[in-house]
Amino acid sequence: MPTMQDIATASGVSQSTVSRVLTGAPNAIPINPATRERILEVARQMRYRPNPLARGLRGARTMLLGVIVREITDPFFAGAVDAVSTEANRRGYNVVLGHAHSRADEAIALRAVLETRHCDAILLLGDNSDQPRFLEDLRDANVPVVGLWWQAPVPGVSIIGVDNRSGVEGLMDHLMSLGHRKIAFVGGVFLEGRRIGDLGERRAAFLERAAADGLKIPNGFVRDAQNTLGGGAEALKVLMALSERPTAVMASTDVLAIGALHAAYQMGVDVPGEVSIVGFDDLPMAQYATPPLTTVRQPVTEMAVAGVKAAIDGLEEHESKSPQIFKPTVVVRESSGSVRIEADERRPARTG
Prior knowledge:
Layout: H1 4-11, H2 15-23, H3 33-45, H4 52-57, E1 64-69, H5 75-90, E2 94-99, H6 104-116, E3 121-125, H7 132-138, E4 145-148, E5 157-162, H8 164-177, E6 183-189, H9 198-212, E7 222-226, H10 229-240, E8 248-251, H11 254-267, E9 276-278, E10 295-297, H12 300-317, E11 324-326, E12 329-331, H13 343-346
Parallel strand pairs: 1-2, 1-3, 3-4, 4-5, 5-11, 6-7, 6-8, 8-9
Antiparallel strand pairs: 10-12
Helix pairs in contact: 1-2, 1-3, 5-12, 6-7, 8-9, 10-11
């Protein structure tokens, strides 16, 4: 990488002059406009980039945002990282990415690494608020911290979340309007069988709504599965093997729902004729599933914009903001349909 000294040599001026031009530092003696333009042109030709570490040591902003992702293998977070990076770049920042594998010790180590690289702020993608060690370490952070797709308020962290309960309510309204009363739920779990943040909240919202509507939840209708395509497929196979089958299956993520759709195809189970399947997230692949998946769309771009803004604003305000909770919307596609009325249900009741 070219240095200021390299640019000074090529421009025929002193390094201090180059420094004043490239950093915009005030100068009592005006710099000749032709000299300034020559220095800038040489810098462009040599593809000079400021050193973030050196800027950090001088107390200037490094224009780096650290991003710690809970589960980078989850397609949802791949899209979230892209949205955060796009907004950060638009604001003149670059992103340093780390993966925590849902482990507190790895997240703590990553946070320390990002601090030593002089990141101006840290964004946490995915809820790790159930990890006391991690939360304790966050309180000692020397930079603004933003939790994207977090739920519960945490001291020292600006929370950007989605209203999971509203999304589940919307799916339940949709399924019940189609006549479904035998609704099963497949909840995603991560490392060591933990239901983290949003996934646990969706499961709780389903159970509360079912209880409020007086729906019968037979044994085996609520299942936990690894948040993978295979986990969703295995869960559906178990549900379809029950003596009393559900007429609809709600999955806590699109990954699980798409896995379930694949299992239904393998078993020859008609969707939505025999069972409706719905998901949550609206991944790009959801509309290309067979059949296209009914799901809940999260406002990913809007949440990413809010998260980056909260991180940058935190540099000025030096305090966390009130939680921002975004409303999702139900997207109805072909994987959900009306309950099929069996022949014996259509048969009129006997009299006499």
